undecaprenyl-diphosphate phosphatase (Kosakonia arachidis), 202 residues
Amino acid sequence: MLESLNHTLFYWINATPDSPRWLIALAEFSASDLISIVPLLAVGLWLWGPHHQVSAQRQLVIKISMAIVVSMSISLLLGHFFPHDRPFADHVGYNFLPHAPDSSFPSDHGTVIFTFAVAFLAWHRLWSGAVLMAVGLAIAWSRVYLGVHWPLDMFGALVVGISGCLSAQILWQAFGPALYRIIQQIYRFCFATLIRRGWVRD
């Protein structure tokens, strides 16, 4: 039943040779480049911001990093123990994005961006989480549209992302403050010159 639903949704979303070229180009950008928002936003939150918010921002970055490590570990295990061919490997639909024929479930791109979005919903602001969730949905759509993932790969990524955030919250309660102090000390040592010049926050 799930496989039937998976195929039905895939055929509904997947592009065809008759699809508009501009829409395929937009999907290619979303599928390959939009994920860059994750490291860029993390770096920005760590290095800059209002002085009274920097500590909270850095703790958020560490919690998100913990969540992504857990999420990607779960994703790796699922892909290893429950391998699932990608659509093009099964000769289903059309493929417009070159990709290795490795296991598709759950999506790594989806896991990272949905973990990021859920983390912002839970630990930052509702509006920022909603924006990132919209980015996540765009990435999820694009990778199905271009034929490298099934729709359920993306749903699985969302569930894994939620699991990663829940695990990170538990880990933070046990190790978070001590980990934050250690990383903060390492950062201040490595970026001492830039901090003194006022290019980044202390």
The mean pLDDT is 94.
